[in-house]
């Protein structure tokens, strides 16, 4: 580890540069007005090669850094003005000042500027990056390019962030690319197909609403393809294999044209690469948003998920993946576009783990060892239609289907005090949901706009849970057989098999009508009339399977929740007024809600009706074109769904039960946030910061009754206020060929837990700091070197815990002998508490590829887990227990593969 890390530092520190001359000045028009976002480029006179560039700031100032003792041609350009050329020969001076005045050119066409290969071009709310200016030939995917662009990041979930804001949509040649998740674009679009990357700020899908809604946080990306990649099929096929029957097959095929587009992505492998995780499946929205979003109401429609682990590829002992996805768009006419996608993901996962859990209430320690097999089949399908016959009318329709088949089989041994249990578990679920959305937008005239949105959701889950307590014999103790004091077990058995069958069905309808009145370009009034209706049914039964295979049905209503119904209605009226004065934009608002809740359990009907006034407020201070300060406030009512209302028992896992409470009421949340964002193309500095504060009143908490390690949780309303504060910041700067990033995230929260009817206060304090430097040389090897420091502190009435993670990391990529490319990634983990180091481990991966210039074939050798790390540790804690888990991961393996570029 030390040798590898020091080698990177040695090469990094050995880079040397010639003496540079700083050239600064101002670009103005003929009457002295500064021209912001004008382009200043420097070409080496002898070769006409671009060597440096600058984009002017709000004062029209530019700056260039050029090597001394050479001659250059400076080209200065701005939309609508004549391009000015100026020759300059540099001596050994350290700094030169030179101003330029541009003259208007009434005959200049937009295409003249757009066809010039500037590294960065700014036009209104669009930033265009020329990809060849930032690449060196080692890039394979879109994500490899994006991480080199000023102001652009790829976060830990694979999502694209621009200036600290998550990208809401990725398009290729203006066509949507799997519009719910940018991760598929990041990991699959070939880098060599992309000519330009357009960042679209203040993005709005609905032209009519772009001027009346607040879009400052909406950013989209549009990819422009190279000539030869348009109106032709292109893509690549990768296939490889290695020892121990390792294999990889990864074909990708793309077609884009002005009228239609098709993308096909497939991936079959057993090397631990998961192109689409179950977490992606649950997070994937398909471009949908709730029609009632922003109204002030939150109805938490929780999904069961059976407690299935959201595994990453470095946490499993063995993984097999099957993935296929297709995306299409078609312009049926000038006014009508249709699009959609299909996604299938199948994974088989073998997991081996050991855990130590310390329960804070009674200081018991449980040790477990578990093997798990998961088989997950996930499917998504979306169809979209957009009809826009003219600029004043738009009709959209979307249908989005999510379906999955999930199964998990596990074998677990549990040991605490003098109790030893062997438990086998089985979990399976076949949930599906269908969401349909219809929107109409109509501009009556330049003063009046109408929009209507209707959304319908059908959701059904059928989770089944089985736990078998093996070899206990007749009349086991309550510690050996959990919840034997609750369940009417037949105790004359050798093995005790408990089952739970459950069905939850949800029908939800959201509808609203918005009317906008525009007083002028700087102010408008928005009146909203809407409603939310949700109807849910819940059926659950718990029963015992006896040794001979017969069934012992638990007849008590606590174990048979039949035909529980829960209806929720929210009728609301909202009023928002947006006005702009100087650099400020204000949007105060108020919504009036009438809530009706009715639930029927075992013939006992409980109904409530109440009216609430929920205010909201938005303010934006536009300090500069790319610098703003935003403040938002909202008060929201949060209601539980039927999973917390149904009063029968529900298994969470072998030692945890949940029992609903039909009398719980809504909680109230007050949310405050202050966000600062600044991005300067003049000095390539990106600064983002946010402060978020949340106060919860009458929150829904769980009252937990412990019996040894076994527990029963019941939701109750807590009258105690809980608070959380999160402060985050990011500073990034591109300095020549270096991209420096500093990130910090600090969170504090105090909350109350109720254990055995006693109220205990807990506090958590988390800190996460990351610093990194990335180089972007054309001919030198490139490096990323960074350090992450994480501190987690947790305090409750009985204990105080402090965990620290230190993670240095280093990556290298290099092109050598013209046709060879080498990549390597290294990370080291040191996990400790305040007294001692608890665990250390590291990962090293490397990839060597050969692609002869002009050849469509590429040969690759990849080695994963070179250091053959056997396991990793992950830790978690909450108000009830602290858990340390050791996961056994895939061993070292090598894969040789071939790639053919179509």
Q: What does this entry look like structurally?
A:
This protein is mainly beta and 902 residues long. 4% of the residues lie in helices and 63% in strands.
Q: What's the gyration radius in Å?
A: 30 Å
Total helix count? Answer: 6
Q: Work out the helicity level.
A: under 10%
CATH architecture of the domain at 20-108: Sandwich
Helix/strand structural class: mainly beta
Low-confidence stretches: 1-18, 109-116
Per DSSP E runs of 2 or more residues, the count of β-strands stands at 53
In brief, what are we looking at here?
With 902 residues, the chain is mainly beta. It is 4% helix and 63% strand.
Question: Layout of SSEs?
Answer:
Blueprint: H1 2-13, E1 20-28, E2 39-44, E3 49-55, E4 61-67, E5 71-77, E6 84-89, E7 95-97, E8 100-101, H2 110-114, E9 120-123, E10 126-130, H3 142-146, E11 152-154, E12 160-162, E13 165-166, E14 169-172, E15 175-176, H4 183-188, E16 194-201, E17 219-225, E18 234-242, E19 246-256, E20 260-269, H5 278-283, E21 297-299, E22 318-331, E23 336-359, E24 365-390, E25 393-416, E26 419-429, E27 432-443, E28 448-461, E29 464-469, E30 496-520, E31 523-545, E32 551-553, E33 560-581, E34 584-601, E35 604-624, E36 627-639, H6 642-645, E37 649-653, E38 656-659, E39 667-680, E40 685-697, E41 700-707, E42 710-717, E43 722-735, E44 738-755, E45 758-775, E46 782-795, E47 800-816, E48 820-833, E49 837-850, E50 857-864, E51 871-877, E52 881-888, E53 893-901
């Amino acid at each position: 580890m030390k040798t590898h890390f020091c080698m990177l530092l040695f090469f990094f520190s050995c880079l040397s540069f010639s003496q540079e001359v700083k050239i600064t000045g101002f670009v103005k028009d003929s009457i002295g007005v500064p021209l912001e976002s004008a382009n200043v480029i420097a070409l080496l006179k002898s070769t006409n090669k671009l060597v440096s560039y600058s984009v002017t700031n709000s004062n029209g100032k530019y700056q260039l850094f050029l090597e001394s003792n050479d001659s250059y041609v400076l080209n200065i350009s701005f939309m609508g003005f004549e391009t000015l050329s100026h020759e300059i020969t540099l001596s050994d001076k350290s700094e030169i000042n030179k101003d330029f005045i541009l003259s208007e050119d009434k005959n200049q066409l937009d295409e003249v500027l757009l066809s010039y290969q500037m590294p960065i071009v700014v036009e209104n709310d669009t930033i265009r990056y020329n990809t060849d200016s930032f690449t060196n030939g080692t890039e394979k995917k879109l994500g490899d390019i994006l991480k080199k662009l000023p102001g652009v990041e790829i976060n830990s979930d694979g999502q694209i962030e621009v200036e600290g804001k998550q990208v809401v949509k990725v398009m290729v040649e203006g066509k949507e690319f799997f519009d719910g998740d940018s991760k598929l674009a990041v990991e699959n679009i070939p880098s060599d197909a992309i000519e330009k990357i357009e960042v679209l700020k203040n993005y709005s899908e609905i032209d009519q609403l772009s001027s009346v809604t607040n879009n400052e946080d909406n950013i989209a990306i549009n990819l422009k393809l190279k000539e030869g990649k348009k109106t032709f099929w292109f893509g690549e096929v990768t296939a490889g294999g290695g020892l121990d029957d390792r294999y990889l097959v990864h074909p990708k095929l793309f077609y884009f044209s002005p009228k239609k587009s098709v993308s096909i992505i497939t991936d079959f492998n057993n090397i631990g690469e998961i192109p689409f995780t179950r977490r992606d499946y649950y997070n994937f929205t398909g471009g949908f948003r709730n029609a009632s979003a922003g109204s002030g109401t939150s109805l938490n429609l929780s999904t069961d998920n059976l407690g299935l682990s959201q595994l990453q590829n470095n946490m499993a002992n063995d993984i097999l993946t099957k993935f296929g996805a297709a995306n299409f768009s078609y312009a049926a006419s000038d006014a009508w576009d249709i699009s959609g996608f299909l996604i299938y993901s199948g994974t088989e996962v073998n997991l081996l783990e050991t855990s130590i859990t310390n329960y804070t209430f009674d200081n018991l320690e449980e040790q477990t060892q578990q093997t798990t097999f998961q088989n997950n089949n996930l499917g998504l399908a979306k169809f979209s239609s957009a009809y826009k016959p003219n600029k004043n009318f738009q009709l959209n329709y979307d249908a989005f289907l999510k379906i999955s088949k999930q199964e998990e089989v596990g074998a677990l041994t549990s040991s605490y005090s003098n109790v030893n249990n062997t438990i086998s578990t089985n979990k399976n679920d076949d949930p599906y949901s269908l969401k349909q959305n219809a929107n109409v937008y109509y501009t009556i005239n330049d003063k009046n706009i109408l929009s209507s949105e209707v959304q319908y959701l059908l959701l059904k889950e059928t989770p089944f849970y089985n736990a078998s307590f093996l070899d206990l014999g007749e009349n086991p103790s309550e510690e050996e057989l959990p919840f034997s004091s609750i369940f009417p077990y037949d105790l004359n058995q050798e093995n005790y098999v408990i089952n739970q069958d459950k069905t939850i069905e949800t029908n939800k309808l959201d509808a609203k009508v918005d009317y906008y009145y525009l007083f002028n370009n700087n102010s408008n009034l928005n009146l909203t009339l809407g409603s939310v209706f949700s109807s849910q049914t819940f059926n659950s039964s718990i029963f015992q399977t006896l040794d001979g295979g017969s069934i012992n049905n638990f007849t008590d209503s606590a174990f048979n929740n039949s035909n529980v119904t829960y209806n929720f209605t929210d009728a609301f009226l909202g009023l928002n007024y947006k006005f702009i004065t100087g650099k400020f934009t204000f949007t105060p608002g108020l919504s009036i809600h009438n809530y009706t809740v009715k639930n029927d359990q075992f013939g006992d009907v409980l109904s409530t009706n109440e009216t609430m006034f929920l205010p909201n407020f938005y303010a934006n201070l536009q300090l500069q074109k790319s610098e703003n300060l935003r403040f938002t406030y909202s008060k929201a009512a949060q209601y539980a769904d039927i999973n917390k209302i149904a009063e029968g028992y529900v298994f969470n896992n072998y030692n945890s039960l949940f029992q609903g409470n039909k009398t719980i009421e809504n909680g109230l949340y007050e949310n405050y946030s202050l966000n600062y964002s600044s991005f300067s193309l003049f000095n390539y500095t990106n600064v983002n910061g946010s402060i978020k504060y949340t106060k919860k009143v009458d929150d829904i908490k769980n009252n937990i009754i412990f019996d040894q390690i076994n527990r029963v949780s019941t939701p109750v309303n807590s009258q105690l206020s809980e608070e959380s504060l999160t402060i985050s910041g990011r500073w990034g700067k591109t300095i020549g060929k270096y991209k420096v990033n500093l990130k910090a995230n600090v969170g504090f929260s105090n909350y109350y837990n109720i254990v055995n009817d006693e109220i205990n206060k807990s506090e958590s304090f988390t800190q996460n700091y990351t610093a990194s430097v990335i180089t972007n040389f054309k001919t030198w090897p490139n490096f990323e070197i960074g350090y992450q420091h994480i501190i987690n502190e947790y305090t409750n009435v009985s204990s105080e815990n402090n965990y620290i993670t230190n993670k240095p990391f280093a990556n290298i990529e290099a092109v050598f002998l013209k046709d060879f490319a080498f990549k390597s990634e290294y990370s080291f983990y040191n996990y400790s508490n305040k007294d001692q180091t608890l665990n250390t481990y590291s990962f090293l991966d490397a990839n060597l590829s050969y692609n002869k210039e002009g050849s469509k074939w590429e040969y690759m050798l990849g080695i994963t887990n070179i250091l053959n790390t056997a396991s990793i540790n992950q830790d978690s804690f909450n108000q009830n227990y602290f858990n340390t888990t050791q996961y056994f991961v895939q061993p070292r393996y090598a894969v040789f593969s071939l790639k053919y570029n179509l």
